[in-house]
Amino acid sequence: MISRPTFGGALTGALAVSLALGLGGCGTSTTSTSGFKGEQHAVAQTIANLQSHGTALEAKKVCSQDLASTVVKPLNRATGGCVKAIEKQLKQVDSFEVTVESVKVSGATASAQVKSVHEGKQAISTVDLVKEGGRWRISSFS
Predict the structure, then answer these.
(1) Which long-range contacts (CB under 8 A, 24 or more apart) does 121-125 make?
(2) What is the DSSP string of 35-72?
(3) What distances in angstroms separate CA 130 from CA 10, 44, 70, one per listed residue?
(4) Exposure class string for 30-69: b at 16+ Cβ within 10 A, else e
(5) 121, pLDDT greater than 50
(6) What is the model's pTM?
(7) Which stretches within the chain are classed as H helix?
(8) What pLDDT, on a 0 to 100 scale, did the predictor assign at position 95?
(9) For a pLDDT cut of 90, what percent of the chain falls above it?
(10) What does the pLDDT average to over 88-100?
(11) 128 has which bridge partners?
């Protein structure tokens, strides 16, 4: 099980996604999207983008390109907004491998099963996404 800090509301969702995908830290790893086609590929690419932006400590891109408005809007009401909240978390997270195991698309929503390995422990998590403005965005993590 992945240890995550506990916060309230949408902050939890955004931080959990960042932490679950192993964004930030010292190393880099990539998420392969080559096994997916069409909308499934686009969903997997969003997860790969989140990992890439987080690894590069690009909190602004995480907020503007990767996270759904339902996650970003509440974070923007906090001091420093979404960017500051994500920056703080990215600096605290160690890097680890991520694999998109499967993707299910249903209209304007999708879910991906994501396998991560951190300190030798595997975890399977679900990342939920919504389509906003023609792009897939991460809305929650469980």
Answers:
(1) 121/1, 123/1, 123/2, 123/20, 125/2, 125/20
(2) T--HHHHHHHHHHHHHHHHHHTT-HHHIIIIIB-HHHH
(3) 15, 13, 10
(4) ebebeebeeebbbbbbbbbbbbbbbbebbbebbbeebbbe
(5) yes
(6) 0.79
(7) 9-20, 38-55, 59-61, 69-76, 81-90
(8) 54
(9) 46
(10) 73
(11) 111, 140
For the chain, give every domain's residue range: 9-141
How confident is the model over 23-55, as pLDDT tens digits? 433 444 556 677 899 999 999 999 999 888 888
Q: What is the mean pLDDT of the chain?
A: 79
Q: Which fold has domain 9-141?
A: Nuclear Transport Factor 2; Chain: A, (3.10.450)
Q: Which of 52, 32, 60, 54 is nearest to 44 (CA)?
A: 32
Q: Are 132 and 68 contacting, i.e. CB atoms less than 8 angstroms apart?
A: yes
Computed from CA positions of residues 89, 91, 97, 98, in that sequence, does the dihedral angle turn out positive or negative? positive
